[in-house]
Amino acid sequence: MSSVSKADRKATLDVASWFFNVVTSVGIIMVNKALMATYGFSFATTLTGLHFATTTLLTVLLRWQGYIQDSYLPLPDLLKFVLFANFSIVGMNVSLMWNSVGFYQIAKLSMIPVSCFLEVVFDKVRYSRDTKLSILVVLLGVAVCTVTDVSVNIKGFLAAVIAVWSTALQQYYVHFLQRKHSLGSFDLLGHTAPVQAASLLLVGPFVDYWLTEKKVYAYNYTVISMVIMTTVNDM
User: Where would you find the membrane-spanning parts of this chain (predicted)?
Assistant: First the structure.
C-alpha cells in the first residue's frame, strides 16, 4: 500500500471517528438521562459496562471489515488507560444521574482548561495571551452556572469534578498512546473496549449498590430500557 493511500485511509478514519463521536455523544447523553430519570435505572457503572460490551461487538465487526488493524499495546499502558477511562465514563454517567443535563454539559466545558493545564505540566506547552483569555472566559462561565444552577448538589458537584479530571487525563493519555504506538482511534478502541467492558461489568453491581443502596438485578427491566442500556458507548 502506498504512502498516499495510507494517508487517505487515516484521514477517512479520523473524519469517521470525529463524526461518530459527535453523533453518539449527543444521543447517548439524552438516552442515558431518559433511562435514569424516566425509567429509574440508577446503576451508572453497570450501565457503562453494558455500553462498552456493545462497543466491543462493534470493534469485532470493524476488525472483520478491516477498519481495525492488528497492533500492539503493552499491558501496563492498557491498564493505565482503562483506569483513567473507567473513572472518566463512570464519573460522567454519575454526574449525569445526579445533575441536570445543563450542568452536566457545562461541567464538561471545564475539561478545556484542565486539559490545557495538563499540557503545560507534562509537555511544557506555552499558550498565547488570547488563548489564556479564552480559557478565563470558560472558567467564568462555568463558575456562574455552578452558582446559579439550583439543581447542583454536593454529590453531583463531586462527581462532576472527578469526571472532569479523569476525562482530561484520559484524553491526554489517548494522544500519548497514539503517538507512542502509532495507533489509530479505532485501533486503540479495539484494545481498550473489551477490557473496560469486562472490568466494569465485574465491579459495576457492587459500586452501584454502594452509590445507590439498590441492587441492579432487582430492577424492573423493560424492552425499551434494555435497548437503551445496550447502545454503543460514547468514545
Answer: 12-31, 43-66, 78-96, 133-151, 188-210, 216-233
